[in-house]
Every structure is written in C-alpha cells, then in structure tokens.
Design a protein that fits this description.
Helix content is 40%, strand content 0%. With 89 residues, it is mainly α. The longest helix is centred in the C-terminal third of the chain and has 23 residues, at 55-77. The termini are far apart.
C-alpha cells in the first residue's frame, strides 16, 4: 500500500449553466373562474400578480389574498347594518 495522494480530483461532470441558474418567473396559465362575488373575484385576480414574481415573492401575494378572503368570509357572519330609515325604535 502506498500513501500517495492523487495530483488532481477525479473528473466530475459539472452542471450545465442553464440548470444551475433559476428559471425566470412564468405564468402557470391557470384559468380563474368568476364566483359572482366582486370582493372574492378581486382577490382571486390578485393571484395573477404572483405569475410575474420569483417564488420568494409569492408569499406576500398569497398572504394578501388569504387575508382578503378571510375578511370576506367574516363579513358574511356580521349582522346586517340597518339603513338610515330602518331604525324603528
């Protein structure tokens, strides 16, 4: 046995440059079907903003949409507000 160290590391194939760099943002091409509720539809359209962002920018859009959808659902549970002439006390 010898204690010789090879002069150079074995040849390891390098990754092609196109695989090493992250891909540019690209739309997924998903179709958003209108719900008929203007507030919900506006939030769903906001999701399209994520199509042009890198993955680390998606979180802000998703959180904004989630917050808006949660607010819309919460508003459904709120008691109706009487109109100006509906107060009959």
């Amino acid at each position: 046995m010898t204690d010789e160290v090879p002069a150079s590391a074995p040849d390891v194939p390098e990754e092609p440059e196109d695989l090493a760099a992250p891909a540019a943002p690209a739309p997924l091409g998903l179709v958003r079907t209108p719900t008929g509720h203007a507030g919900v539809d506006a939030r769903l359209e906001r999701l399209a903003d994520a199509d042009h962002l890198t993955a680390d920018g998606h979180v802000e859009v998703y959180e904004d949409v989630h917050r808006g959808l949660r607010d819309a659902l919460t508003a459904l549970d709120a008691p109706p507000v009487p109109g100006p002439y509906e107060n009959r006390s």
